[in-house]
Amino acid sequence: MTQTTPPPADPPAADSTGTRILVELENVNKHFGSFQALTDINLTIPERQVAIVLGPSGSGKSTLCRTINRLETIDPGGTIRIDGKPLPDEGKALARLRADVGMVFQSFNLFAHKSILENVTLGPIKVKGVKKAQAEKDAMGLLERVGVAQQARKMPAQLSGGQQQRVAIARALAMKPKVLLFDEPTSALDPEMVQEVLDVMVQLAREGMTMVVVTHEMGFARKAGDRVLFMDEGKVLEDTDPESFFTRPQHPRAKDFLGKILTH
Amino acid sequence: MRSIQNRPALAVIVALAALVFGGASLSGVTTLATAPSAAAATPAGAGQTYTIATDTTFAPFEFRDSSGELTGIDIDIMESIAEDQGFEVEWQSLGFNAALQAVQSGQADGVIAGMGITDERREIFDFSEPYFTGTLTLAVNEGDEGEITGFESLEGKTLAVKTGSLSEEEAKANQEEFGFELLPLDQTTTMVESVKSGNADALMDDYPIIAYGVEQGSGLVTVGEQIPTGDYGFAVNKGDNAELLAMFDAGLAELQASGEYDEIVNRYLGGEGEDDGVDRSTFWGLLVTSFPALMSGLGNTLLVTAISFALAMVLGLLFGFMKITRNPVLRGIAVTFISIFRGTPILVWAFFFYFGLPQLIGTNVNIWVAGVLTLTLNGAAYIAEIVRGAVQSVDPGQMEASRSLGLGYGKSMQRVVLPQAFKMMTPSLINQLVIMLKDSSLLLAIGFAELLYQAQQIYAANFRVTEVLLIVAVIYFVAITLLTQLANYVDRKVNK
């Protein structure tokens, strides 16, 4: 337990072993019009866990990831809690809670009109009220950590995809989030740049960051994952450890999925 | 002879305004240049200041010279008489109909505006002794004066006349005898142009107007004998200001006896010209003499555009955002506003704000207010669409990334989306600015003294339409080119 400021009314959730629960989904459903993207998701992710979300495209992995910081709203009746607190509706409270949940996007989404350094300092300065000098010092530390400190004064468009995605990770880390969400972070990268991004993610996992990672990188899932959630048609069909999933998949869809990606 | 047919521009405006707004009366057409001041009290005698109403432009009787000063035969005669008789004149340059109304309503003490003495007008006004005798004249291109010398040499030729005026009546009366074709046109300017372009061989119109045009280098010469049409007089409201009328008559007699009267008339019609050493008949002379007035017009054009564009930016941003909000009421307001002002001509709004609105609210609308309102609302509708398009073209991932950092919607817009949207919309905004600057010329229809209006005033007096328009086109082109360069420079500095 590392919590320093316990909220008065809402004590942090914990499972039976006393580990703090950071993300909790209860009866989560999501419709896009008549199409149901998520069906009855119930899920808890404890502190320091790296949960890998796998599944064929269109299975609802990205949607699941995006509901956790409310980039997608969920159908009424369901609940999502972050560190014990239900996700509020739009407004200041939501913005505050979002700062606790970092997000790394498939297409990086670096702010195109701001330098690399400004991308990383924007959140701390504008949301947390950190002084500019301090924010820049912290940002340089993070950029150093992801290996792009040399590029700090450049604009995003001047960087390679791999470098941009590492900046995006540094930007998310600058908010000191409790959880980091990765939505297919390497899918838009040229193959030779995938590894540099995965290396940073493996490092984060080792340092104990709580992560939810939507990915197709099986190597990463085996190496860094604590848990695999296999999704298809909006449902979580398997929820197990990586070793069991890759060696003894239970569900026929999971077997089929593994068969397709491991044979090519 | 003055009549409403002699003032087609005004007639067209009034007719249009009446068409658009049903009840637009002539009282809507006021204060084209000067606001009416309070009527001066008028006890008898010298030392008194009299408010004298006149037309805006009826060269050579009254018009504005290159420095914007009111000048002309009427003005000079009135001021010479005032000096002679020892009273002061305060001018109100209102437009012909408005000047007559100002006298009738007591807002002015008298009117001198190339006004023909008719029995109808005698019912309402008391007239002075005639100070000028109106005549009609024929005019032909320079070089044709040997060939065409009068009606008798017009057989088989085409004569331009003014629709509904005495020139048309006079020409019709002689048409059968001399066998020429008639080409009725509604403006002196058009008549002069049709002779210069060869569409007509000669024209017939009021002598002073044509003679002044010849003086100003119109390229025509007057031929044949002048045909008298009627006398011009100074007028006061019937039964009022008898002492002013008496002083005018006495002063006029003095001027005629001393020869000063002939001097004044010759100054405008006799080929003497303003004594400033500039030969007006050359292009250079035209450029030099018209430049100050055109520059003041350009100043007004730039100022009205600048004010309107600044306001249109504010409104356009507002409506642009309203159109992309999820609130259906705000969106509805924005959509309605945009479709109304994009779906209607600018001219309709100019007439509405200047002629229609005063009748709804019961008070005059300043011409700057009307002009700025017109350009602002029209520009805002287009800018709103530019803003909406630019904001929507920013990758939604930018907003998502910002919001997932914990920035609120407003801050994300302000810090992340808008700076990128502005960069994208700048070329369209510069384009809109240029369009607005050009559209501001439409305000001439309500008498706003912008660049093209000034040009019209100049060629209405000297008939050198092509040359004046050429000068104006070059001025617009240079101004817009410089403005575009400046905007692009700012764009590069701000949006690098």
Describe the structure.
The complex is a heterodimer of chains A (264) and B (496). By secondary structure, chain A is of the alpha/beta class. Helix content of chain A is 36%, strand content 23%. Chain A has helices at residues 61-67, 92-99, 116-126, 132-146, 161-173, 191-206, 218-224, 242-247, 252-263; strands at 21-32, 35-46, 50-54, 79-82, 85-86, 101-104, 179-183, 210-214, 227-232, 235-240. In chain A, the strands form two sheets. Chain A has a six-stranded mixed sheet, sandwiched between helices. A four-stranded antiparallel sheet of chain A has the order 2-1-4-5, covered by helices on one side. In chain A, helix 3 (116-126) packs parallel to helix 5 and helix 4 packs across helix 5 (161-173). Chain A starts with 20 loop residues before the first strand and ends with a helix. Mean pLDDT of chain A is 89; it is low at 1-11. With 496 residues, chain B is of the alpha/beta class. Chain B is 56% helix and 12% strand. Chain B has helices spanning 8-21, 73-85, 96-104, 119-122, 166-178, 188-196, 207-215, 242-258, 260-269, 283-324, 328-342, 346-361, 367-393, 396-404, 409-439, 451-462, 465-494, and strands spanning 49-54, 63-64, 70-71, 88-93, 110-111, 125-127, 132-141, 158-162, 181-185, 202-206, 220-232, 235-237. In chain B, the strands form three sheets. Chain B has a five-stranded mixed sheet. A five-stranded mixed sheet of chain B has the order 9-8-10-7-11, sandwiched between helices. In chain B, a hairpin with a 5-residue loop joins strand 2 (63-64) and strand 3 (70-71). In chain B, helix 10 crosses helix 13 (367-393), helix 15 (409-439) runs antiparallel to helix 17 and helix 16 packs antiparallel against helix 17 (465-494). The radius of gyration of chain B is 27 Å and the shape is elongated. In chain B, 44% of the residues are buried. Chain A binds chain B through residues 69, 71, 90-92, 95-96, 98-99, 101-103, 105, 107, 109-113, 122-123, 126-127, 168, 171-172, 175, and chain B through 395, 397-398, 400-409, 411, 415-416, 419-420, 423.
